[in-house]
Amino acid sequence: MLDLHPVTEEHAEDARGRHIGVLADPEFADEDLPNAVARLEQAVVAGLYAPEAEVEFDVLQHYDEIDELLETKAERFASQQELARRIRNATPPLRLREHVVLRRYRAC
């Protein structure tokens, strides 16, 4: 079984790689992710799966146009107007960076 999930929220960067801000997703970060991690840990403790390998890396999403980024993530920007303003004032292309972990488990 493979488990792939972010370990950070998405970070917006400008063309020079400078940090603009974090696209907060509190429901995912505070509820969904911890619940999923806990359920997987329960399966490991119950002896259903055993961890085999793990790797961490960054997933990058590139946006040549500011409007494309704002439209793609419109639901999240609705509650983060200050971040949306900073992104509108940034120099494109823009990039979203999210650190993820990929784990492989074998069935027991």
Strand content: 35-45%
User: Helicity range of the residues?
Assistant: 25-40%
Separation of the first and last Cα atoms: 11 Å
Structural class: alpha+beta
- The mean pLDDT is 94
Largest sheet entry = 5 strands, antiparallel
**Overall 3D geometry?**
elongated
Overall structural domain count: 1
Number of helices: 4
* Order of secondary-structure elements: EEEHEHHHE
Rg on CA atoms, Å: 17 Å
In total, the number of strands is 5
**What low-confidence regions span 5 or more consecutive residues with pLDDT below 50?**
none
Question: What does this protein structure show overall?
Answer:
The chain has helices spanning 26-45, 66-72, 74-77, 81-88; strands at 2-6, 10-13, 19-23, 49-63, 94-107. The chain has 108 residues and is an alpha+beta fold. It has one domain. The protein has 4 helices and 5 strands. The longest helix is centred in the first third of the chain and has 20 residues, at 26-45. A hairpin with a 5-residue loop joins strand 2 and strand 3 (19-23). Strands 1, 2, 3, 4 and 5 form a 5-stranded antiparallel β-sheet that branches.
